[in-house]
Design goal:
By secondary structure, chain A is mostly beta strands. Chain A contains no helices and eleven strands. In chain A, strands 2, 4, 5, 9, 10 and 11 form a six-stranded mixed beta sheet that branches. Classes of the chains: A mainly beta, B mainly beta. The interface between A and B is medium-sized, with 19 and 19 residues.
Chain lengths: 111, 114
């Protein structure tokens, strides 16, 4: 059973701090990893993807991947109230087209 | 990125009836996906729809209950048949972007079955 696991939260972070969202996956065949953000009542939107070990930065967002530990994380620097949303982690294998979704972590940024 | 529209945006239906949800994309795409999302839950893939071939259904979903059409590269429909209150959910279509795993989602159809 291929699984992607996330803490459902809510994770409460003060405005301006770093929000750290974590995700683990069970299938070592997973090759690429994605972070989607979903605002309440809205559809998911892709914010980051990563497929190599290490860090990938995009503005205030940094995705981190450690394939040996089967661990993916998303850091949000200088958190803003507008970052409050549910963050979904997903994984995919090169041999497949289907995303395996985590349950999502609800992030609350407190002003 | 693709722009995706869905119709209807929401509906309230009686049990035993059927509802067809439309998904329109502003560009040609090979792969389209249909998901269901219960409130506060993650996404559950119902099926993958490729143009010109039968949809591929995930475990727990069958064609008789969720028939899908994919007549061209910009359009798909999902029908929820013989509805029961358990079918109340948000139904989302998505399309694959330029990289595998990158998906763009429609706004969703909020379905309530009474």
């Amino acid at each position: 059973q291929k699984e992607v696991e996330q803490n459902s939260g809510p994770l409460s972070v003060p405005e301006g701090a770093i929000a750290s969202l974590n995700c683990t996956y069970s299938d070592r065949g997973s090759q690429s990893f994605f972070w989607y953000r979903q605002y309440s009542g809205k559809s998911p939107e892709l914010i980051m993807f990563i497929y190599s070990n290490g860090d990938k930065e995009d503005g205030r967002f940094t995705a981190q991947l450690n394939k040996a530990s089967q661990y993916v994380s998303l850091l949000i620097r200088d958190s803003q109230p507008s970052d409050s949303a549910t963050y979904l982690c997903a994984a995919i294998m090169d041999s497949n087209y289907q995303l395996i979704w985590g349950a999502g972590t609800k992030l609350i940024i407190k002003p | 990125s693709a722009v995706i529209s869905q119709k209807p945006s929401r509906d309230i239906c009686q049990r035993g009836t059927s509802l067809t949800i439309q998904c329109q994309v502003d560009s040609q795409v090979t792969m389209m996906f249909w998901y269901r999302q219960q409130p506060g839950q993650s996404l559950t893939l119902i099926a993958t729809a490729n143009q010109g071939s039968e949809a591929t259904y995930e475990s727990g979903f069958v064609i008789d209950k969720f028939p899908i059409s994919r007549p061209n590269l910009t359009f798909s429909t999902l029908t929820v048949s013989n509805m029961s209150p358990e079918d109340s959910s948000i139904y989302l279509c998505s399309v694959e972007g330029q990289g595998k795993g990158t998906q763009y989602f429609g706004p969703g159809t909020r379905l309530l079955v009474l």
